[in-house]
Amino acid sequence: MQLENAQVVGDVVKRLRRAEGQLAGVIRMLEAGRDCEDVVTQLAAVSRALDKAGFAIIATGLEQCITAGPEGTGVDRARLEKLFLSLA
């Protein structure tokens, strides 16, 4: 499955870059000996950002699959289900 929607790709890349910055912040917090609760809160934010990026990618794949129709080259249902479950 290849993403064909440039807007979705751009949005996902922005989200991933933001998550990358958040993760770097978590690492700095750990190295600085910051409070556990603060670190876990920021780590949870990184996790949510990654999940949202993954769901956006899967949703776009699902949309492409539906519009390709049964005779198209879209992703089959089992593959999409496996992708969704990988993020659960």
UniProtKB/TrEMBL annotation:
<dbReference type="InterPro" id="IPR038390">
    <property type="entry name" value="Metal_Tscrpt_repr_sf"/>
</dbReference>
<comment type="similarity">
    <text>Belongs to the CsoR family.</text>
</comment>
<dbReference type="Pfam" id="PF02583">
    <property type="entry name" value="Trns_repr_metal"/>
</dbReference>
<keyword id="KW-0186">Copper</keyword>
<protein>
    <submittedName>
        <fullName>DNA-binding transcriptional regulator, FrmR family</fullName>
    </submittedName>
</protein>
<dbReference type="InterPro" id="IPR003735">
    <property type="entry name" value="Metal_Tscrpt_repr"/>
</dbReference>
<dbReference type="GO" id="GO:0045892">
    <property type="term" value="P:negative regulation of DNA-templated transcription"/>
</dbReference>
<dbReference type="GO" id="GO:0003677">
    <property type="term" value="F:DNA binding"/>
</dbReference>
<keyword id="KW-0238">DNA-binding</keyword>
<dbReference type="GO" id="GO:0046872">
    <property type="term" value="F:metal ion binding"/>
</dbReference>
